[in-house]
Amino acid sequence: MIASTLPDLVGRYRECAVLDELLVAVRAGGSRVRVFRGEAGIGKSVLLEYAVARASQLTVTRAQGVEADMELPYASLHQLCAPFLNEVDALPGPQRDALRVAFGMAAGDPPDRFLVGLAVLTLLTRASENRPVLVVVDDAQWLDQVSLQTLEFVARRLLAEAVAMVFAVRDPEGGDALTDLPETRIGGLDAASAAQLLEATVSGRLDRQVRDRFVAEMHGNPLALLEFSRGRTAAELAYGLDSSVSAHAQGTVSSRLERDFAARLGSLPRSTRTLLLIAAAEPVGDAGLLMRAAASLDITADVTPARTAGLIDFHGFLRFRHPLVRSAVYHQAGVEERREVHRALATATDPELDPDRRAWHAAQAASGPDEDVAAGLERAADRARQRGGIAAEAVLLERAAQVTPDAWLRGRRAVAAAEAHFSAASPDRATEQATLAELCPLDSLDRARLTRLRARILFARSRSDEAAPLLLEAAAQFTAAGSPLARETYLEAISATIFAGRVHGPTGARAAAAAARASGAPPSGSKAADLLLDGVAAILTEGYEAGLEALRGALDLLAQEELRTREATMRWLLLVPVALEAFIHYAWDLHAWDTLATRAVRLARDIGALGALPPALIYAGGVHIHYGDFAEAARMIDEADAIAAATGHAPHKYASLVLAAWRGDADAASHIVDSARASAVQRGEVSLLGAMGYIQGVLFNGLARYDEALVASRSAIDHDGFNFTGLALVEHIEAATRCGRLDQARTSLARLLDLTRATDSGWAAGAASRSRALLAEGDEADGLYSTAIEEFGRGGVAVEVARTHLLYGEWLRRNRRRALARDHLRVAHDMFDGMRADAFAERARRELTATGEHVRTRVAPSAGALTPQESQIAYLAADGMTNARIGAELFISPHTVEWHLRKVYTKLGINSRRALPDALAGAPGADGRERHGGGARRERPKGSPRPAGTSGPR
Questions:
Q1: Which of helix, strand or coil describes residue 217?
Q2: What's the CA dihedral at 823, 825, 830, 832 to 10 degrees?
Q3: Which pTM does this prediction carry?
């Protein structure tokens, strides 16, 4: 569509066309997001006004970022959501509570910012049911951090709502804001358009050479063209800019503009300059507050000179014509002038209605240390934390530390500020505050907190083993102080060494475990955490047999422990990965894996912890891979990746790798392996390098590329890691027997038997029996294969049941027992084919063909196969969930649910959700396979009964 521009939009046809298309799409019920980027004065705000002017029949809501040191959590988001707050009580309970706490409308646990984001998405979706909604955000780089993060989350989750979001971001200040969203970069006007704009502004005829020189000096920046030609005739421009302007000709266009605005201030009356300074120091723009502060300074509110100078607009309230004017006013004033204005603003601010803003202005007015001011800031930081504003908490604590007179208190507040900055994902500022804290006297507890923080910053930047010694030092300091944080920190140190990938050595997991056991650390307050530490430490120091009893006790508590607060739930979610690694790789307990992963998914959903949900989904997806339900695993991995992308986190590679390996997708696995290996090397995650060996062992064994499987699995065994050794041994034994390396196979078998002998797990017993069978002959091998099938079935490990049928069938065929071989190979082929484990299915097909049996070729997947998300939504709808509940479950809007369901109905040839259960029974899923059975519930593959009392997360 060709945009019909307004006079102010000379030369912006392309940008206007983008906005016209956005408005057409949202009126038609679609979602659109657009970020306009460019330097100050380039015309971003004018484009937003163009969109607003064209937004007839739309509900428009706006937020404006303001450059300020003060950080009020969710202030900008509250401004944007104000028109819709009468609908808050209609939101789902967790969303309603999160939004009310965030906006200071109620007290409660600090909300997860992603749950607040989902509440805002739902709020906008509900509003769009009456009229399409246009969200306009100017100077987004200056929104309070949590508001910006929340709006970015909403923008990434829009799909089928009649909601459009348009942002303006200034470069270079906003370089990191709203990245990877659809964007349009705005450059200077072309020469012809710039000349047209200039000639429309200057009175008289401009000489072409003069015009072209002036346009070139302004780099096509519309604001610069207008401001530097302001009040000047063509004749004046022909003789060059006067000395007051030419003095500003150095630097960027924006810096030259700011200096020009500052120069205009000099001609204003002192009272007007002070009034402008009050407005510049008060970013919220509260007119009443401005007037009260002015009155306290005996200032008459005369804005006429400033308006005449082109610095402000005044329509009942004062508004700077451009953010550069605000910046010029504030920074041109002297230090004492700024303090005087902040003092007046603090006095004029109601201590009951707005204590945080009062505390901030009081701090800016302070000329030196002041404990009353520092204590006020600390209380404001606590209120910010309660509302979920971690970034605001960090800034307030940082300022509190700066004005604290007592050195001991200053150190404690600096430590708290550093911790808050780290939690707000600002490790550089956390390091700065930690350095300041180290210059202060600290008690033993604060010293331990600081040491732990240093370790966490180091570990976050690189998963190297350098963090473990610091964590152990912190744990010892906590122990000496009698703190319950000691055992938690020892567990964190062991976890760090596990992910760094080393068991032995002075910085390995075993050394950390030995230190924990010898520490005499007091109880942590969580019996589950204490038993987990005891179990993991015993495994590492005495052998896994010694730790199994404590692990089993921890499992019962982890599965059933009542979590009364959001903080307790978050601590549980942080604890569970270590538990899962122990139960998977040492207890070989698929039941425990399922139980803990299921609860982790459910808890993360219940409290809206979107940071914790992707790893929980990945663990749950791993359960379904071993159950042989690859379609369900794919759905979980897909959801985890979508949430990670929406929240700005990197996707988790491990589950995708394992799934690709079991599917036999060499190309996909190779691509993911290369990417994951590069990431692991860069971040120092040596444990992931060990996992690569196991994963490639599965892949190459499935593809019958046994030489490559031998090398890959060997690398995992030699890795010296906490996890994957046992699983890699299973792969190595199969590859070694196929390659005729029987000595290697026997050595690995001895290690495997040592790792599995103390557990009564069907998974462990099956792995031991099958691996023994590969090295046995005659009746012994016959019995061992049968035992392995039974044990893997008892453990619910369907993929290994199928694999054992395959290996048994291959052995039977080589021993000329074709009839029985066909039976086992047929079971293996049917199971693998149903799972879509294509490489293993092809191995079984080749073996069956060698026995003389004809194997039908699978029909190619239908073009109408459901995607992973469509399939997930369809099954939840078939189970009776409403769109609103499905949306809350999957962190999408009800409109997006309905949009997906319409596509599902089309693909399944139905027209209502009542028909879903029967239609899903035979529908092609994301993997192209038909589902069989009498309803929406998926049947487990043959030979893979779930352990009693367990079920995967829904």
A1: helix
A2: 150
A3: 0.77
